[in-house]
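Entry 14. Structure prediction run on the chain below.
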Amino acid sequence: MNRIAPIALLIVGVALLACGYDAYRSVSSGVSRIFTGMPTDKALFLLVGGVVLTAAGLGGLSRGTGPK
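Output returned:
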């Protein structure tokens, strides 16, 4: 029961990373990179959010209570 939240965070984090990667590789993000040198804000938010949630999920799983 204690592992449900970290697993959910991990799943959502990986999904955000996948969506962020797709947004980063999109045409609009490519055009933004040409003119500003940065991808779109949406792509950045998705990638950063995915990294944070994935790290939180992995951190939660690594803090397991262990056998009692």
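The chain has one domain: 4-62.
Filed with the rest of this week's runs.
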